Amino acid sequence: MTSVKNSYLLNNTGENTFFLRMHFIKCRNEAAFTHSKKCKFQKYPELLSRWKNSSREAGFTLVEVLLALTLLSLLFALANGALFSMGRISGKTIASMQKARALEFCVETMRKELGEARCDPADDRFQLTGGEGFLSYSTTRSEVIARTDMPRGFLQVEWKFDPDKKTLQRTVTDLVQRGKEIGKTASSTLLDGLIRVSFEMHDGKQWTLLRGKPTVLPVTQAIAVELEFDKGQSPFSTPIYKSAFAMPR
Predict the structure, then answer these.
(1) DSSP characters over 173-213
(2) Within the chain, how many helices (H) and strands (E) appear?
(3) Side by side, which strands form the sheet with 222-229?
(4) Mean per-residue pLDDT for 126-132?
(5) How many CB atoms lie within 10 A of CB 137?
(6) Which residues fall within 8 angstroms of residue 24, CB to CB, at 6 or more apart?
(7) How far apart are CA 193 and CA 166, in angstroms?
(8) Which of 33, 176, 226, 238 could pair with 242 in a Cys bridge, judged by C-beta atoms 3.0 to 4.6 Å apart?
């Protein structure tokens, strides 16, 4: 067989001779490599088994796939629960901050308006009136909520607690009237989630809780307000908030 190949190679020249020689060398090397691997595999049977298995394509069993899917489902469930809890806590925090700002605005508005209030027992437009969950006064302070509807001048402000809706409502009326024209009125709800709103007055000696229907108050040096929020509605750690304001002399 070798003499035939050699005689065939001797009778061919040029490119055919080159390619045929390279093919012959390749076949010889492959034969030597196969022989050497067979010798190794005969000596070490475990290598033969490992070499045969390495030629197969890698894959997963049905049990492995189901186990992986179960673990992924558990991870997604835990992640979804964590995200939902974070969103709920974030929502509560935002709502609490908004209510705290509303309470601060409400108390600050009351303090500034009472600081510029006018009390004249002889004129029913400038009387300080109070009762259970109710307070009314006249002020010269410019309107901050309905500023586009209220002109400058004296304004009558009423704070009223609605126990059914659990809200604190503020109503402002323009006291400037020209002829038969009635002053403009604007109403807004500033706080909700309340179960009690009470006012107190200080006459220079002691605090007195305002009860019953609204009545004209005597000379007053200070006014206090106490707000009690429903369970889980308070923006602070305690459900009760209290503040006091000095009246002008």
Answers:
(1) EE----TTPPPPEEEEEEEESEEEEEEEEE-SS-EEE--SS
(2) 4, 11
(3) 207-209, 194-202, 222-229, 240-246
(4) 91
(5) 25
(6) 5, 9
(7) 5
(8) 226
| Strands, E assignment, the chain | 117-118, 129-131, 134-139, 155-162, 167-174, 185-192, 194-202, 207-209, 215-216, 222-229, 240-246
CB 159 within 8 A of CB 137: no
- In whole angstroms, what is the distance from residue 210 CA to residue 133 CA? 8
Looking at residue 122, what is its pLDDT? 76
Q: What is the predicted pLDDT for the residue at 72?
A: 86
Residue 233 token pair = 């509605």
Distances (CA, A) of 217 to 2, 58, 89, 136, 164: 131, 92, 45, 10, 26
Q: What pLDDT is recorded for position 166? A: 93
Give the Cα separation of 234 and 241 in Å (integer): 9
Positive or negative, the CA dihedral 100, 160, 205, 141 is positive
